[in-house]
Amino acid sequence: MVNSERLWSRIQELALIGKTVDDGVNRFSYTLEEHAANEKVKQFMEEAGLEVSYDAVGNLIGSKAGEEDLPTILIGSHVDTVPNGGKFDGALGVLTGIEVMQSLQEQGINLRHPVKVIAFKDEEGTRFGFGLLGSRAVAGHLTHEDLERKDQQGISIREAMLERGFNPDKLHTAEMDHVKLYLELHIEQGKILESQGVSVGNVTGIAGPLWLKVKVVGEAEHAGATPMGQRKDPLVAASLMIAEIEKLASSYPDAVATVGSLSLTPGGVNVIPGTVEFTIDLRDVQEDIRDRLESQIREFADQIGRDRNIEVVIEELQRVSPVLCSDDIQAVIQESISELEVPVVSLPSGAGHDAMQFNGLFPVGMIFVRSKDGISHNPKEFTSREDAKAGADVMLKTLLKLDQE
Ligand code: HGY
Ligand code: MN
Ligand code: MN
């Protein structure tokens, strides 16, 4: 089994990097905090006997040769976070992969397959509004055009990469082939495992996020001198859209829609706003439903624009297809869970993960551990030491079984 004390202390140690005033974590890609976190993870990987390097885009990769010349088993997750995020989202998956490899080394167990443990760059997409960056590169999906996306300060992904010493011109070298499968452990970020009273579960599939940015352009005018009937107020228009987005999403059983960020200019108490921008995150495990919801939202927004003579521009930020996890890997995960005498619970992931990028390239499997109260993307995010241990033991058992296939 794994050394849960070591795993737990590493979780706490990593959480100190980018710590916020209310005990959350801020680690946005290519920033100094996120680089410091990667350097700390690099140290853990070296302690686990892995050969460590960064690839051209900044993925941190800990490699272990196999006894035989076989395809590689990838284990990964991310250490970047959402604003004021939790200690476990992503980080637990990377640290668990390292802990499993270190425990195998200490027990003198050499695997047949080579293994790479990866801390993928920019899974969350917080800084550039474009997530899953590192896993896109490993899958061969990342393009130079993608690197032109800019953060709020106008810095492009390319410039941020160069600033941290990485090499965007060589992004194609990050692509990996000769891969057997991908395995990720992650916190559930929902309430299903907790409601069923189990610490660890098997993931059946992953809902695919669609991110849109809506720009509503009205006319900034005097709040006192402009009669109500002569205004082109983009904030009122946006508010009508946002209320309708909630209503439309609620009309489907599993769809979710979130307006997570909104900004307006110029922002004076006595000035009618001129421009409003907001983002929409749409998801459903069924792609056709998600896309139907998208077209309903677009139609409504355009209608509001026509009715109020206001310009509405909708930009797509990212569109990721939902993914089904491999039946074979699921069966192995379920067997490993049973061996811990934990009832087997299989569940879909509403949250997106790096595993989505490998759809159609090689099989993927995910292990979930329980989230207290289902809370995530919040400083209150918590997974217990016991549940983290259970997840790591399932990961270790699963890896040993898959290595025999
Ligand atoms: O947005 C997500 O689902 C994940 O946390 N990146
Ligand atoms: Mn997340
Ligand atoms: Mn995550």
TrEMBL record:
Does this UniProt record's set of keywords contain Hydrolase?
Answer: yes
InterPro entries (UniProt xref):
Amidase_Cbmase, ArgE/DapE_CS, Bact_exopeptidase_dim_dom, Peptidase_M20, Peptidase_M20_dimer
Tree of life domain: Bacteria
Q: Which residues form the Peptidase M20 dimerisation domain?
A: 206-306
Instruction: Extract one GO molecular function annotation from the record.
Output: hydrolase activity
Which sequence ranges form a coiled-coil region, renumbered to this chain?
none
UniProt keyword list: Hydrolase
Q: Which family does the record assign?
A: Belongs to the peptidase M20 family.
Name this protein carries in UniProt:
Zn-dependent hydrolase
The organism is Bacillus carboniphilus
